[in-house]
Amino acid sequence: MTEYKIFPAIGIARVGNAKDKFYIGPETYRGLPTNLDDSPFTESDFRDENGSLCRQAARFRIYRIENGKEEEITLNTANVKTITWTAHLANKKASWYNFETSLGENGYAPNHPLRNPQVKNRHKLIIDAGPRMISGANHDGCHFDLSSVPPDYRGAHFPKGVLYPTKESITTLGCLRTDAAGRLLVLGGYGISGSPDKHPSIAQYANNDNWWDDTSDGPVSARIELKDGTIIEAAPAHVLVGPPSYAPQIANLVTLYDTIFDAMVRAGHYPDIFANGFWKSGSHGYRPNYRTEIQPLLERATLYPWVSAIPPKPHTFDLDKLGKLGADGYGAAEYMGLRQYILSFVRSPENENVIVQSPDYKTAQGPHAGDGATMMPYLAGDNALIPAHAPNKYLRLTDTQFFFLQQWAKGCFINCDQATAPAMGLTRAVLENCVGGAFSPGIEMTWISRNPAIYSEPFRIRAHFVPEGPLNLDFDPARGMEPGDLTRYMALPWQADFNECSSQPMDGRVIWWWPAQRPEFVYLAPKPVSALLAVTPPDEKSGQQVPWLGTDFDQMGSDFIQFANDVHMVAYWDGLGFVMEKHIEGKNRFVEVERTLPRPFRPND
């Protein structure tokens, strides 16, 4: 059987306000972006010559898969005449329901409020320029704007006039380009958000009527014409256009790959792990690979102290001991106690509302409640905001991640090199650089990612193209996901959630949200810079952490590691710094680079 498919199955583009310069998003796990000319990516490549923040392009490729063997198909492939790409981006945020933590994941109630409920013509709340096509090599200039709407497309719409506070207008959702081999590059918007109100205000983190932003999403297709006239349609992909990732080399504890993979496992696509309601546990069950399914999770915990105020030592592991095998090929018996000790600190699936493990942990009440160890992750969960809804205050690992750790703790694991097919490896790497929780609502995608009905196969979104418009306003996974259907749940504008989801007071503590992409605290570092070595945890020579933005002297203050006003994030998001790995004084350190805002920065000064 021969199949042609686009990879990554889900691509990630990110907004930026540089007019022309851009880079290609990371295509390796915890990797840096890629320059268009393949030159080494340096800290200066995050911005253009004017100091503007570059957009991130999503690059798509076509693979031919035959009997398990993969071959990339480009314009340089023998017998290929043309490759024609079609993509369609839209923003449906203003037309959708209010985001209210977990409500809606299993369907909306009839009294669930809409955003902008006073607007009768809901199509006027969609930003949509229709589909675009591009082919050939090194082509550009195919924009998603009103001036180039296909003549037979109905329903194109953009917000009119100037938006405040930045006095800019949303006139495009991005553009398409091709590289020298005919691969597709999708670029999103310029990070413009605003309201026609000359004195705009943001009332809350997720739902703000009369506001717009230029994030988006949509399906991507490819049509291959061979020299003998044969036409081949590749299985489509999807692109998400989200906010910048300010620490691209630090991975989230739960990535978007982990979340989707878990949904696919529980839907029955990986019966060697889970089938017919049972996890394949024990010595004769599924044995996760330490190198690919355990060690990366442990390593992520070691990197969080670089971007949040947590002590490095408890998050430091002897990775060789934890992955050691005994003579029987199972986990070394002498380290079983250590493995089980680590697992004992990990929040289990039924404990989303427990921060301290104690003899009364299941109720978090009783004489010993609050006396035990702090459970991990020390991160906010999907519903840390509205107690009246089903609470889910603290982030936990996915069921599959936790199952892997259970097997590892018992010694039921392997430790070996494991080759990953290039195509699927590309999808995995791209999604491992995205947030997989907490979804309140998230950064690139929210809990809709956990719904197996939206996928045609693992990780591939069931696409519905709308060549003539207008777009639909409903949710119909059997029909497929239209442009704008995946990002419409996200905060409007995205900067409001991005600003406020810094820290969260809960149960007498301050909990973090997504420090791996939206840093809480950062380290500063001197120059010069040389080659990279093995990463070490922060130490006494790392210097003092400083807040990535805002202040750090009052945890209850309105500007504690955030702007006191969400509107300030709309105005100044592009001046924030990135966190990058650099070799300093004999050690690898993750430090802030390319910040253009002064420190300290007070927006009202």
In DSSP terms (H or I, runs of 4 or more residues), the helix count works out at: 8
Structural class: alpha+beta
Alpha-carbon distance between the two ends:
65 Å
Query: How many runs of DSSP E, i.e. beta strands?
Result: 28
Mean pLDDT: 94
- Cα shape: globular
Report helical residue fraction: 10-25%
Low-pLDDT ranges: 366-370, 528-533
Largest sheet: 7 strands, mixed
* Cα Rg: 24 Å
Multimer state: single chain
Q: What amount of the residues lies in strands? A: 15-25%
Structure explained in plain terms:
- The chain is an alpha+beta fold.
- Helix content is 12%, strand content 23%.
- It has eight helices and 28 strands.
- The protein has helices spanning 256-266, 290-303, 319-322, 336-343, 399-410, 422-432, 494-500, 566-572; strands spanning 2-7, 10-14, 22-24, 55-66, 69-73, 80-91, 127-135, 142-145, 172-178, 184-187, 193-194, 212-213, 216-226, 231-242, 274-275, 278-279, 356-357, 373-374, 380-383, 392-394, 455-457, 460-461, 503-506, 509-512, 521-522, 546-547, 578-584, 587-593.
- Strands 1, 3, 4, 5, 8, 9 and 10 form a seven-stranded mixed beta sheet that branches. Strands 2-14-13-6-7 form a five-stranded mixed beta sheet. The protein has a two-stranded antiparallel sheet with strand order 11-12.
- Helix 4 (336-343) runs antiparallel to helix 5.
- It is globular, with a radius of gyration of 24 Å.
